[in-house]
Design brief:
The complex is a heterodimer of chains A (465) and B (462).
Chain A lengths: L31 E5 L13 H10 L5 E3 L3 E3 L3 E7 L4 E6 L13 H12 L4 H7 L2 E7 L3 E6 L6 H4 L19 E7 L3 E6 L12 E5 L8 E5 L7 E15 L8 H12 L8 E2 L20 H8 L5 E5 L6 H10 L5 E5 L1 H10 L4 E9 L4 H12 L6 H16 L2 H17 L3 E14 L2 E2 L15 E2 L8
Helix pairs in contact in A: 5-6, 9-10, 10-11
Chain B lengths: L1 H18 L1 H4 L1 H17 L6 E9 L5 H18 L3 E3 L2 E5 L2 E4 L9 E10 L2 E10 L5 E9 L3 H9 L11 E9 L5 E6 L5 E6 L3 E6 L9 E4 L14 E8 L2 E8 L5 E7 L2 E8 L2 E8 L2 E9 L6 E9 H7 L6 E4 L3 E8 L5 E8 L4 E4 L5 E3 L11 E4 L3 E5 L7 E6 L6 E7 L3 E10 L2 E11 L5 E10 L5
Parallel strand pairs in B: 1-2, 1-5
Antiparallel strand pairs in B: 3-4, 5-6, 6-7, 8-31, 9-10, 10-11, 11-12, 13-14, 14-15, 15-16, 17-18, 18-19, 19-20, 21-22, 22-23, 23-24, 25-26, 26-27, 27-28, 29-30, 30-31
The chains are: A alpha+beta (465), B alpha+beta (462).
Chain lengths: 465, 462
C-alpha cells in the first residue's frame, strides 16, 4: 500500500563520491547527511533487517564488496588470490591501516573476524564453514586459508554483508564513520572515521534519525512511493516475516494453526503485506495451501493459553498490532521481545515455543537457495530426519545446478515445511530507497546497499548536518 | 557626413580596435606619452629604482580599462630601458590599486598616479616623490580625447591578455603510472637532471629527459603508522641543499609525517621524519628554514598553521624537532617567491574558495583573497619571476600566467590544456626553464590516464 509518508527509514549514508578527475577544482569536504533508520538494539553486528544492514554498513567495513556492473572490490586487502591447485586462499592486508580507535588492523583480526562470521547461524556462514579447513596467520599482514574443496567463487561468498572487520575492543570500528552521541529513541550521530581504509569520507558527519523529524535525505520506503524531492531506487530486497515453532515436537498442530491464523490477520500494519508463500508471490512456482482457523475456533483453542510469543526486536513495530489483536479476541497471550543479537543463543539455550522473526532476501537469489537458507537459519539445528535429509539433498542439487531435480525436491521441502507447520509465512515488506534528487550517482551493491564512495551532492557545498 | 561614415565603418573599426588595441587606442597613446614624459623627468639616474605605490581611477573608465592603462604604462616604461621600474601592483579593484610595499625601502622614486575625466576625454596625473623623505620632485599631467567607440571596444575585451599568448610552449609529454601524485625536478651537472615522482609506496627517480616513464629507480617508502587513507592521494616533494648536502622531503595527505632523505652518490639515506608536509626551504633572518603545513587528514587541503623548522638544528639533532608556527587560513596550495639569494620575498596561496592571495616578507597577508574565485588549486613559481596557476574551470583546465618578479602580480595570459591539472612544479631542461604539469585525462572507458608535460617558457623569458 502506498503511503505519503515513508514507512521505513533510512538508508544511510551515501558517500559523497570523489571526483574521478581531481585537479584544479577539488572535491569538497564537509557537511552532513540525515538518514532515517529503525533504531537497533546495539551497535553489534546483527543484520536482521534492511535498516540494520544499512546502518552497520556505515560503521563496519566488509572484507569485500560486489557490485553487479563493477565486480569485486576490497579496501582492506591489497592482494587477494585463490590457488585452485592447492585450494588455498591468500589475503594480504594493506599495511598501516587502523581501526577508528587508532589501533592497527592486522592479519589476526582478519582471522577473528572470519571465525566470528563462520560461527553465525547464517546460511552463507554455514556454507563457507563447511569447506574451510585451516586459517594460518603469516606475519602481521597476511593470512592463508586452506579449503577442503575447490571453491572458485570463494571471494563472492566472502562479500556477505555480515562478514565485517572487527577489532579487539568494542570501540574499534572499521567503517567510514564511527558512532558518536546516541540519544535513545531520537538519533545517533556518526562522525567521520579518519582511519577508514577506503579513504576519508567527504562528509564530516551523518545523523541517523530514529523518529520522523522532517524529510530525511535518505530513507527506506514502500515500493511505489513518489516524492518530488527524492528519487526512488529499487533495493532489490524484500523482508519476509515468519512465525516459527522451534519446539516443534511440543507444539500441537491445532495450536500452531491457531497461532498462525491469529497472527496472520493483523490490521493497522504499516507497509506489511500478507504473505501466503514461503518466498514471494512473484517468484514462487509452487502454490501451497495453508490451513487457517476462524476467530471462533482460535478463541476456543487459545483462550486459556498462557503462551509467550517471542518477537525479534527488529520486528518490534508489530508488537502493538499483535497486542490489539489478542485483546480483541480476549486471548491472554504475552509478547516477549528478544534482542536480535541474542536471538540465536537464546533459542538454543531456552525453550521458545513460538517465535516471530524476519528474513531478508535478495530478489535475485534462486528460490531453492532461499528455501535452504530459511530452513537452515530458522530451525536452530533442530531438524527431523526427513527434513534434514531433504535440505541436504536440495543443497547438493543446488551445487550440481540441476534445476529439474531442484524443483522437485523444493516442492517436497516446502510441502514438509508448511504442512508440518515448521515455518509459516506471515508478511512481506518490499523496499525502495528514497534518495534526494541532488545525490548522484547511485550505485547499489548486490545486497541493496548504496556505495558511499560513488554518491555525491551535485551542489558544490553539501549541507551541514 | 564624417559621423555617418564612421557609423558605417563601425564594425570594421571595432574589429580593428579589438585586434590592434595596444597600438591604436587612445589609452595606449596616452600610456606611451605618459611613460615617455616620466622617463624624461627621471632619465638622469638609470639605476634608480622607480615604482608606483598608488594608483587611483577617478575617471569614467572601468576597473578593467584602468588596469589596462596601468599595464600599458608600466610596459612602456620598461621598454625604454632607461629606468628600472618595479611593478608592485598586486590587484586593482573599485578604482584603487593594491601594491606590495614590502621592499619600499629599496625604491628611489615613488609614483602616485591618477586618472580623471577631463573636458575632452581622459586625464592622467603622476606625482613623483623621493622615497626617502617623500619630497615632491615633479608633476605630470596629460590629457587625451577618447572616442565613444573606443570605450565600447574596450568594454568588449574583458580581461584580455596582453597580446597573443606565446608565453608557454609544450615541449614533452610522458604517460605515467596512475598512482603518481607528486612530481619534482632537481638539476645536476650540465644538462642532467633527476625527476622525482611519488606513489603511495615508492619514490621513483628518473634520469634525464626522454627516459621511459615506466622505468626508473624505485625507493620503497616506510610511512610511519598509522595511515590516514585518502580518496585522492596528494603530496609534495621538496629537494633542498643544506650546506654541501642535498636532501629530499616527501609529504602526503595520508600520513602526518614527511620523510626526509639525504642524497648521496650511493642513493638515498633516510634521515628523519618531520611532523608536517614540507612546502619550501627558505632563508629568513640568515637562517635556513623548512616550511610546511599539515593536510586535514585524508583530505585535499591544508590546515592554516604554517610550521617553521630551523634546518641546522633539526638535521643535527636528527629527531622530531619542535617547530614554530604562524597561522594563515586553510589553503590548497602555497608557494614562495624567493630573490636571487633565496631569501624570502613574498608568498602566494589559494584558499579553499579558489581565491588567490599574497603575503609579504613578514609573513603577513598583503592582499586578502580576491573576492571572486581566481584560479585553480595548484600554484608554482618559476625563475623567481613567474607564477603559474591552474584554472578554475570545471571542464578542461588551463594554466594561468602571472608576472611576479617584483612582488607584484601582473596577469599575462592563459594556456588551455586537456584534462585536469593535478600538480605543478618548476622544471629546467637543457637550460630552458619551464613548468612540469601532472594532469589527469579521462579515457574512453571512463578511467583516468596520468600525463606529465613539460611546458617551457618562451625564448625571451628564459
Amino acid at each position: 500500500m502506498l503511503k505519503t509518508k515513508p514507512v521505513c527509514l533510512i538508508l544511510a549514508l551515501l558517500l559523497i563520491g570523489p571526483l574521478l578527475l581531481c585537479g584544479a577544482v577539488k572535491m569538497k569536504y564537509g557537511g552532513g547527511l540525515r538518514v532515517r533508520f529503525f533504531e537497533p538494539d546495539s551497535l553489534n553486528m546483527s543484520p536482521s533487517n534492511y535498516s540494520n544492514l544499512l546502518l552497520y554498513s556505515l560503521i563496519y567495513e566488509n572484507f569485500f564488496y560486489n557490485f553487479p556492473d563493477k565486480g569485486l572490490k576490497s579496501n582492506l586487502f591489497k592482494r587477494y588470490y585463490y590457488d585452485e591447485t592447492s585450494r588455498t586462499l591468500t589475503l594480504d592486508l594493506y599495511e598501516g591501516l587502523a581501526f577508528s580507535n587508532g589501533k592497527p588492523i592486522l592479519a589476526r583480526h582478519v582471522k577473528t573476524s572470519l571465525t566470528s562470521f563462520l560461527n553465525r547461524v547464517l546460511y552463507r556462514s554455514r556454507k563457507i564453514a563447511g569447506f574451510v579447513k585451516t586459517m594460518i596467520v603469516k606475519g602481521d599482514y597476511s593470512i592463508e586459508i586452506t579449503l577442503t574443496s575447490n571453491q572458485p567463487n570463494i571471494f563472492y561468498d566472502l562479500s556477505a554483508p555480515e562478514l565485517i572487520m572487527t577489532g579487539d575492543e568494542e570501540a574499534a570500528f572499521s567503517g567510514p564513520f564511527l558512532p558518536g552521541n546516541w540519544e535513545k529513541g531520537v538519533k545517533l550521530n556518526l562522525i567521520v572515521n579518519p582511519y577508514y581504509a577506503g579513504g576519508r569520507h567527504p562528509l564530516d558527519s551523518v545523523t541517523a534519525l530514529f523518529r520522523d523529524d522532517g524529510l530525511a535525505d535518505i530513507f527506506l520506503a514502500e515500493t511505489g512511493l513518489t516524492l518530488e524531492s527524492h528519487k526512488s531506487i529499487p533495493s532489490g530486497l524484500y523482508q519476509n516475516v515468519y512465525i516459527t515453532f522451534p519446539e516443534l515436537d511440543k507444539a500441537g498442530q491445532n495450536n500452531r494453526i491457531a497461532l498462525y491464523s491469529l497472527c496472520h490477520t493483523l490490521t493497522g500494519l504499516n507497509g506489511f503485506l500478507p504473505l501466503n508463500v514461503l518466498t514471494s508471490p512473484q517468484e514462487s512456482p509452487l502454490s501451497l495451501s495453508i490451513d487457517t482457523f476462524s476467530d471462533r475456533r482460535i478463541i476456543s483453542l487459545l483462550r486459556n493459553s498462557k503462551q509467550i510469543i517471542y518477537l525479534s526486536s527488529s520486528l518490534q513495530t508489530l508488537e502493538t498490532s499483535l497486542n490489539q489483536r489478542f485483546q480483541s479476541l480476549q486471548i491472554p497471550l504475552e509478547i516477549r521481545v528478544i534482542s536480535d543479537n541474542e536471538l540465536n543463543g537464546y533459542v538454543q539455550n531456552n525453550p521458545v515455543p513460538v517465535l516471530i522473526q524476519g528474513k531478508l532476501f535478495r530478489s535475485d537469489t534462486p528460490i531453492p537457495e532461499k528455501i535452504a537458507m530459511l530452513v537452515r537459519e530458522f530451525r536452530y539445528g533442530k531438524f527431523d530426519e526427513e527434513l534434514l535429509g531433504l535440505i541436504n539433498q536440495l543443497e547438493e542439487l543446488i551445487k550440481l545446478k540441476n534445476e529439474d531435480l531442484q524443483m522437485a525436491t523444493l516442492g517436497k521441502v516446502m510441502e514438509k515445511v508448511i504442512a508440518g507447520g515448521v515455518i509459516l509465512p506471515l508478511y512481506q515488506q518490499r523496499f525502495s530507497l528514497m534518495i534526494r534528487n541532488d545525490l548522484n550517482p547511485v550505485l547499489i551493491d548486490g545486497y541493496g546497499r548504496i556505495s558511499w564512495s560513488e554518491l555525491r551532492y551535485e551542489k558544490k557545498d553539501p549541507p551541514q548536518s | 557626413m564624417g559621423k555617418r561614415f564612421l557609423i558605417l565603418l563601425f564594425p570594421f573599426l571595432l574589429l580593428g580596435l579589438v585586434t590592434q588595441l595596444c597600438s591604436q587606442s587612445i589609452l595606449s597613446h596616452l600610456a606611451e606619452k605618459s611613460a615617455k614624459e616620466l622617463v624624461s623627468r627621471l632619465g638622469s639616474d638609470p639605476l634608480a629604482i622607480t615604482a608606483t605605490i598608488e594608483f587611483i581611477n577617478f575617471s569614467h573608465l572601468s576597473d578593467i580599462q584602468a588596469l589596462t592603462f596601468y599595464q600599458l604604462f608600466a610596459l612602456q616604461i620598461e621598454k625604454t630601458n632607461r629606468v628600472v621600474y618595479r611593478d608592485l601592483m598586486v590587484h586593482f579593484a573599485s578604482g584603487r590599486g593594491r601594491f606590495n610595499l614590502t621592499e619600499r625601502h629599496a625604491i628611489r622614486y615613488e609614483l602616485h598616479l591618477i586618472l580623471i575625466d577631463s573636458p575632452t576625454g581622459l586625464g592622467f596625473g603622476a606625482t613623483i616623490r623621493l622615497a626617502d623623505d617623500l619630497s615632491l620632485l615633479d608633476y605630470i599631467y596629460l590629457t587625451a580625447q577618447l572616442e565613444p567607440y573606443e570605450l565600447f571596444a574596450l568594454s568588449q575585451l574583458q580581461q584580455q591578455p596582453m597580446g597573443e599568448n606565446t608565453f608557454l610552449k609544450k615541449k614533452d609529454s610522458y604517460r605515467l603510472d596512475g598512482a603518481v601524485f607528486a612530481i619534482s625536478q632537481e638539476n645536476g651537472a650540465g644538462d642532467a637532471f633527476e625527476l622525482f615522482a611519488l606513489t603511495p609506496d615508492h619514490l621513483i627517480i628518473w634520469q634525464t629527459p626522454g627516459s621511459d616513464s615506466g622505468s626508473g629507480q624505485r625507493v620503497k617508502l616506510n610511512w610511519p603508522f598509522p595511515k590516514l587513507p585518502s580518496i585522492q592521494n596528494e603530496g609534495r616533494i621538496i629537494s633542498f641543499h643544506q650546506g654541501e648536502e642535498r636532501f629530499l622531503a616527501l609529504g602526503c595527505n595520508f600520513n602526518k609525517n614527511s620523510l626526509i632523505y639525504k642524497k648521496n652518490p650511493q642513493g638515498l639515506t633516510f634521515v628523519m621524519t618531520v611532523p608536517f608536509v614540507a612546502l619550501e626551504k627558505i632563508i629568513m633572518g640568515g637562517n635556513d628554514y623548512l616550511i610546511g603545513a599539515n593536510y586535514y587528514p585524508g583530505t585535499n587541503r591544508f590546515s592554516p598553521e604554517i610550521n617553521f623548522l630551523q634546518l641546522d638544528k633539526a638535521l643535527s639533532q636528527g629527531q622530531q624537532p619542535k617547530t614554530s608556527r604562524r597561522t594563515l587560513e586553510p589553503f590548497y596550495d602555497l608557494k614562495f617567491l624567493l630573490d636571487e639569494k633565496d631569501q624570502f620575498k613574498a608568498f602566494f596561496w589559494v584558499d579553499e574558495k579558489y581565491r588567490l592571495a599574497i603575503g609579504g616578507g613578514e609573513f603577513t597577508p598583503i592582499l586578502p583573497p580576491t573576492a571572486q574565485p581566481a584560479c585553480g588549486a595548484n600554484l608554482t613559481c618559476i625563475n623567481k619571476q613567474w607564477l603559474i596557476t591552474s584554472g578554475i574551470d570545471d571542464l578542461d583546465d588551463s594554466l594561468m600566467i602571472y608576472e611576479v618578479k617584483d612582488g607584484g602580480l601582473r596577469f599575462i595570459g592563459t594556456q588551455n590544456i586537456e584534462g585536469k591539472v593535478y600538480a605543478l612544479t618548476p622544471g629546467n631542461i637543457e637550460k630552458r626553464s619551464g613548468v612540469w604539469v601532472l594532469r589527469h585525462v579521462k579515457d574512453k572507458q571512463g578511467g583516468t590516464i596520468n600525463w606529465l608535460d613539460f611546458w617551457e617558457l618562451a625564448h625571451a623569458e628564459n
